[in-house]
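Supplementary Note 2. Why include the ligand at all?

Several targets in our set were suspected to adopt different conformations when bound, so apo predictions alone were not considered sufficient. For every target with a known small-molecule partner we therefore ran a joint prediction. The input for phosphoenolpyruvate is given below.
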Amino acid sequence: MSFAIQGLAVARGIAMGRAVLVASSRVDVAHYFVAEHEVAAEIDRVRRGRNAVVEEIARLQASVAAMSPRETAHELAAMLDVHLMLLNDEELISGVKHWITDRLYNAEWALTTQLEVVARQFDEMEDQYLRERKADLEQITEKVLRAMKGAASPVLPLQRAGRRSSQPLLLEDTVDVPLILVAHDLSPADMLQFKQSVFAGFVTDVGGKTSHTAIVARSLDIPAVVGARLASQLVRQDDWVIIDGDAGVVVVDPSPAMLAEYGFKQRQAELERSRLSRLLHTPALTLDGERVELLANIEMPEDAPGAVQAGAVGVGLFRSEFLFMGRQGRLPDEEEQYLAYRRALEGMQGLPVTIRTVDVGADKPLDAAQADAAHLNPALGLRAIRWSLADPAMFLTQLRAILRAAAHGKAKLLIPMLAHASEIRQTLDLVAQARVELDQRGLAYGPVQVGAMIEIPAAALTLGLFLRYFDFLSLGTNDLIQYTLAIDRSDESVAHLYDPLHPAVLRLVASTIAECRAQGKEVSVCGEMAGDVSMTRLLLGLGLRSFSMHPAQILAVKQEVLRADTGRLAVWAQQVLACEEPGPLLERPAPP
Ligand code: PEP
Ligand code: MG
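The joint prediction is reproduced in token form.
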């Protein structure tokens, strides 16, 4: 039976395919397809992994028999019996074979997929004892996965050739169907590793529109819905699903009529994209001749060439923290960072790259250990520049790497989450110290402009301080909204209150742009507002001339710029600013 789940629209487009359910703890298992001639070897890898665990359990059983007290020995023996029984379970074994043989999943993926299927059955059991055996099942699966690590497949992760999305989807297809990843939650680092993945779309139960997981999904330019509460419980492994990334809807088990309707929408979206591609080389000038700078937000140096191809005239935000995440606490050293920043600069072919210093914490933990650390209020805690200033040696390493990379291109340095004069002075002192250290070591470095993000209301309200100390400013509207409205940007339960058009937010944005312009200081917006076409005219009307966004949004925003008259928009923007609830005003057609 068809049903729909409402979530939050985060990455546009329509995707249709079969659901792949993954528990977040297992997402770092490799997902790739094997060739047909490799199926037998892949099944053999699982068999060997399983046999290794069976042998280990047999060894344990022997030592448990000699243990005392006898009650403990008895309990342990019973647990090991259950583990052996699960390892011999016909459904687990035949299911894994099915995923490998019929779907060509690699061994680890097949095993975790079947784990989700069987675990779901355990969840539905009435008997509490049996329900609790799910934990045993998870334990033995992890053991088999570990045992298989010693017998890794030689096949490299690959991107499936995949159907073109405009081709009709046939329900009887088995191997050649797109796959939609459904998970309770995905960390931004998990999401990033899907960049080269086989998935055509993503759904998560939790997350807000500007959570970093959503931001990364958007940068992958793959349809995604977050905050689709209970999706990972309601959708079953292998169900047919449609994701409507524009409306934030997940349709489960769609009827043929729904498939046809969404197929039509998909083709319309593709037509719109190819129409927009004609604007690639058109200069971003408004009707009244104002030049507008359209920049890209990137997460990794490898994103730079794609940003140039998408029409960006530079990078307005390189979120350097993605170089630091998911490394089990081993942070990149100066050389590794220097090479990464240099790659980004070279990838941009002489265009400027704004490198933001590391912004970890809140919903961007460095790794699982940091995520688990009990911070009461991580978004208000040791995040971004606060984290950097708490570890000056780490921060100096990053600063030296950026300064050295600046010898190879136009690098700009951007500091996140500043609020206090003391933080500003400390930061700038460390930038100066990094230069001195490079001089002492005789290493070359280039000039950089230093900018600050305005993303805490306190910063917007004391802008004079920032204008005095910095060469340029960048409005981080994602956090500015979060901190002005006291709304956790990654909490879907308050997502309806996360309002970029709240008059308080608009006033802070408007006054920041106006004060920068009055002093001739460069200002841009690099939060998600900059890539939201429904905001383009308002931001132009408020005087903004520099927008930094996901590369995939650049041409859609350029289309808005080309149709705009900034003189008229300036008058209209003042009316919007004076409104109690500006939403409806924005929905009505604005002046050109
Ligand atoms: C912002 O806060 O708007 C921003 C661009 O930074 P991030 O989304 O990485 O916090
Ligand atoms: Mg921010």
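The first strand starts at residue 3 and ends at 6. Residues 151-174 have pLDDT under 50 and may be disordered. Comparable summaries for the other entries are listed in the accompanying table.
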